[in-house]
Inverse folding.
């Protein structure tokens, strides 16, 4: 059995044709969906990149693994998807990145592993690593005749020969490199070489695409694929002060999200963009998604031509979403669905049977991915895992008990500069929020700031905070209690279901609903 585990960075759930988006062109993923199952209410349990991947790769809630910011070390005593897959005789090989920050305990502070938070998750063989300095890919571009002035994202400046029309946003301009030389194409080729090197030999390939992560710029073949007028307009947009007044954290975020984070030569802050500018960025983002779709399609076709497709477990998801101007925000942050609602598509090997072309509307979380892969491989799920295998759903079965809500943690501490800490007079450990969301309400609990409550049935765009409304105090109490119960049940529990007794070592169930 083969495993193809793909993450598409910063990919929102609503940018997939098979999931109901009628403007995005993802024909290859849509065809794959005919052989797969889409989990339509899938959420990441944390953001940004490092924390979300720590959750994905350990199967643990961020409140347990505690790698809560980019650069926060991941406890090296924890197991992960790579170590566990090795027990099945597979060699998990990485193409891309895992953004794993090394555990400093037992290491000298001068160890070069601390020069970057973009470490590789232990257990993975390095197929091709793409760090933020982009060194290997930039070397490839130089070999193909491109001028590479310096490392990093400098290559993402737009083609200077392209003339923008008056009023057009800079993200409409194309990149200087062709699609066939993009980091997406380059990573795809490296992964394909690995998967088809020895036909018939089992592989576990983890392909972590950068796109559609910013900088938002598309290649010449894709940059005009979508028009701004064809894009869905951002929600809760037009009155930035109304968004900022909704919560102190939103005011802080809107004041600090810089244009330069999302495209080269950007100046100022993203909250000042016009709706026209936002729509162009959405068009460029859509182009990046379609380009990824094209290259995923090339992998699927190659696996089919080599006879490997049928017996390959394919899992395609994202680390987190992207605000794309909704609520005047960009990036991945806070408590809005746009940052945490992500795609998940799983195709079982043919020998496993199961259903095809189904869409599941039950709540699933990123902690479920590791248990699912291991379950399909016939491996035991480690006790540290907080998630649950989705294999019953894939087999057409409905579990007797399943979660009716999702949760996520967002930590906004700033160890380096203490920005939020100074702004709100908080300690590092007070800079966090926890979300409890079901089909009816979203409750957001802050460690040291006022809570939020949104009525999702009557206010699906999350525009009105009801936490202070007298008529909703019973709801606030109810959801605060649900969150507390959830947290108590899901404390780190690797040892608490063992018992040393007169009968020897006893082991209890770790399933929260058993």
């Amino acid at each position: 059995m083969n495993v193809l585990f793909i993450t598409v960075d910063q990919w929102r759930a609503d940018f997939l044709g098979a999931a109901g988006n009628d403007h995005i062109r993802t024909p290859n993923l849509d065809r794959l969906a005919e052989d797969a199952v889409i989990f339509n209410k899938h959420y990441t349990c944390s953001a940004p990149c490092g924390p979300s991947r720590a959750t994905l790769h350990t199967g643990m809630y961020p409140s347990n693994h505690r790698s809560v910011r980019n650069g926060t070390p991941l406890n090296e005593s924890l197991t992960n998807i790579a170590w566990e897959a090795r027990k099945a005789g597979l060699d998990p090989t990485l193409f891309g990145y895992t953004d794993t920050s090394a555990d400093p305990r037992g290491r000298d502070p001068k160890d070069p592993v601390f020069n970057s938070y973009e470490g590789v998750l232990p257990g993975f063989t390095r197929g091709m690593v793409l760090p933020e300095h982009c060194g290997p890919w930039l070397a490839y571009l130089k070999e193909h005749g491109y001028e590479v002035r310096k490392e990093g994202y400098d290559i993402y400046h737009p083609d200077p020969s392209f003339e923008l029309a008056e009023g057009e946003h800079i993200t409409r301009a194309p990149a200087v490199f062709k699609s066939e030389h993009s980091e997406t194409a380059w990573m795809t080729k490296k992964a394909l070489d690995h998967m088809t090197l020895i036909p018939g030999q089992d592989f576990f390939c983890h392909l972590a695409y950068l796109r559609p992560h910013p900088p938002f710029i598309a290649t010449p073949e894709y940059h005009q694929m979508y028009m701004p007028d064809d894009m869905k307009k951002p929600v809760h947009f037009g009155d930035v002060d109304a968004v900022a007044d909704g919560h102190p954290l939103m005011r802080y975020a809107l004041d600090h999200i810089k244009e330069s984070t999302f495209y080269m030569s950007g100046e100022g802050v993203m909250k000042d963009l016009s709706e026209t500018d936002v729509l162009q960025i959405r068009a460029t983002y859509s182009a990046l998604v379609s380009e990824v779709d094209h290259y995923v399609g090339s992998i699927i076709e190659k696996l089919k031509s080599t006879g490997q497709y049928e017996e390959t477990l394919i899992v395609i998801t994202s680390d987190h979403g992207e605000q794309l101007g909704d609520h005047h925000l960009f990036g991945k942050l806070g408590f809005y669905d746009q940052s945490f609602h992500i795609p998940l598509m799983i195709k079982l090997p043919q020998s496993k049977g199961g259903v095809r072309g189904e869409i599941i509307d039950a709540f699933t979380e990123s902690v479920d991915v590791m248990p699912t892969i291991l379950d399909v491989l016939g491996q035991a799920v480690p006790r540290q895992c907080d998630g649950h295998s989705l294999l019953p759903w894939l087999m057409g079965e409905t579990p007797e008990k399943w979660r009716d809500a999702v949760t996520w943690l967002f930590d906004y501490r700033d160890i380096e500069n203490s920005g939020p800490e100074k702004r709100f007079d908080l300690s590092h450990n007070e800079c966090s929020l926890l979300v409890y969301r079901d089909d009816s309400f979203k409750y957001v609990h802050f460690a040291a700031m006022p809570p939020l409550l949104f009525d999702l049935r009557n206010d699906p765009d999350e525009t009105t905070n009801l936490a202070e409304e007298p008529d909703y105090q019973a709801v606030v109490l109810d959801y605060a209690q649900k969150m507390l119960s959830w947290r108590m049940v899901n404390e780190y529990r690797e040892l608490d279901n063992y018992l040393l007794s007169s009968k020897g070592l006893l082991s209890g169930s770790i399933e929260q609903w058993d």
